[in-house]
Amino acid sequence: MVKSKVDYETDEAWADVVPIPQDEGGPNPLAAIAYTDEYSQAMSYLRAVMASNEKSQRVMSLTEHIIKMNPAHYTVWLYRADTIKALSLDLEQELAWLNGIAMQHLKNYQIWGHRQVIMSLLPTLPSAELPFLARILAKDAKNYHVWSYRQWLVQNFALWPTPGYPSHEIPFIESLLISDVRNNSAWNHRYFVLFGNAGVAAAPSTILDEEIDYAKAKIALAPQNAAAWNYLKGVLRKRGKALKELESFALQFADPSKDEVRSSHALDLLADLWAQEKRIDEAARALHLLSDKYDPIRKNYWDYRRGFLELATAT
Q1: Residue 107 falls in the annotated catalytic set
Q2: Are 260 and 251 contacting, i.e. CB atoms less than 8 angstroms apart?
Q3: What letter would DSSP give residue 106?
Q4: How far apart are CA 246 and CA 215, in angstroms?
Q5: 244-290, pLDDT tens digit by residue?
Q6: Catalytic: which of 3, 68, 85, 107?
Q7: Which residues pair with 261 in a beta bridge?
Q8: Structure confidence at residue 94 (pLDDT)
Q9: What is this structure's pTM?
Q10: Distance between CA atoms of residues 214 and 160, nearest Å
């Protein structure tokens, strides 16, 4: 454990190092950054060891000290990773140390970049990794950096579902959607896991049909959930089917003829469908309802789309 305060100038372990202070632009800099003395000193010693390309245990301690003061310093993370590689240090020990830092700084993307570098050096996925990510997502279910990293894990360690291996990812995503059906990050990851494998030419039609039914069931629980509607349209497109397939389903949640609308997203889908089919009056009414009553915050957007209908009519 690194002490909270370290004086490198008086530490005999650092007596051979000549620190390199930051050049702020001469003796009277115009806008010097107000670093603490502790941080400035530590960075001066880091510059020195980087200049001599030193890779050692004391460099590991130095980078840990700086990271605790400023976990967003990309260069420090990069040099720490290079040092780990040069010394062939215990990678799982580094991951264990990272766990604590990650829990303290949930929104720090440098932590996840470093974790990816370390994980890329391992031949297999450590058994503790996915449970740790579950702990992080329990604190912040839509953390972009964690989800991006998890997608990388799926690609790097081939965690794709296959006929003989259903994958841990789908049950995990399902647990998140049961907890919060509006979790757009979980919906996005579900689509990525099922359809993002570049090594598979096309998903089986049975999977696509199951996912269409799955999305419909989730929409029934929360009709105003944009994530589920977007997922449904994405899977339908991948299945090679037209929006027409969803007309009767969408009408359950939005019927412009009766002005009965439980979902603006269903109304949006119907407007798209009817515009494609040149059912101009019906499409215009749907867009009018969105503009004036069901989604007025985006009035300019809906009026813009309605303008295209008028152009189509004129031509």
Answers
A1: yes
A2: no
A3: T
A4: 12
A5: 999 999 999 999 988 899 999 999 999 999 999 999 999 999 999 99
A6: 107
A7: 254
A8: 98
A9: 0.90
A10: 19
